[in-house]
Amino acid sequence: MSTIEVKNLHFSYVEGDEILKGLNFVIDSRSTAIIGQNGAGKTTFVKLLKGLLKPTEGEILLNGKGIKDMTVAAIAKHVGMVFQNPNDQIFKNQVLDEVMFGPLQIGMDKETAKIKALEALEIVGLAEEKHTNPYDLGLSRRKLAAIASILAMDTEVIIFDEPTIAQDYAGKERIKDIIRKLRNDGKTVITIIHDMNFVADVFERAIVFAQGHAILDDSTKMVFLQKEILEKSYLEQPDVMKLCYELGFKEGFLNVEEFIQGKMNKR
Hints:
Helix content: 25-40%
Distance between the termini: 40 Å
Radius of gyration: 19 Å
Mean pLDDT: 92
Strand content: 15-25%
Shape: globular
Number of strands: 10
Structural class: alpha/beta
Number of domains: 3
Order of helices and strands: EEEHEEHEHHHEHEHEEHHHH
Low-confidence stretches: none
């Protein structure tokens, strides 16, 4: 399990206009969702974590080593990221070649890269599409191919940027299963996302970004119980939690399964 320490992290694209304003937290073993309105600094933070940007002050430590002292290539061996738009990630003519590309770039031999790629395609449900051109897949399945390309790299940290975009119910359920598997395999899983229902179903921890600060950081349930703070950050509670309050329930349930279990336990 990787350790990510964020210490007094500041960042500005333009001098005098800070995007991040002194973030301090540790990403632990819990799957973590970073949520907040557009412009809150979520994407900027992820770019800093990937080494694509350098902090103006403070630091991010990956397993005790400052990211700003590492090359992007070195970070890529530890941190994989699934882009929001798979079209920004995919460029090969065959799905298998696409999924093998990342592993090869971080130093895997061809045989190992192929084994990892085939395993990843099995996980995302695209094993039978390995010789298909990725652009012959629909957008939702293209996103799964992009996910497979990161899974095959077998990095310690996996970041999902808006994983539910373009996904139907079945696609979302498959991605939920993938995230749970990664968590159970000891991977550090992070997402930046606007889908609060997905967060409630899958992620153990939520960090709310607002105006460059982390204003809430707790278990997912405890964060979503802070209705007034969420509203000030232009965020909503998950649908089930909102419905429970409208129906007069005092408890805050994250999803249907939790609601049913909670009611059964009180019988």
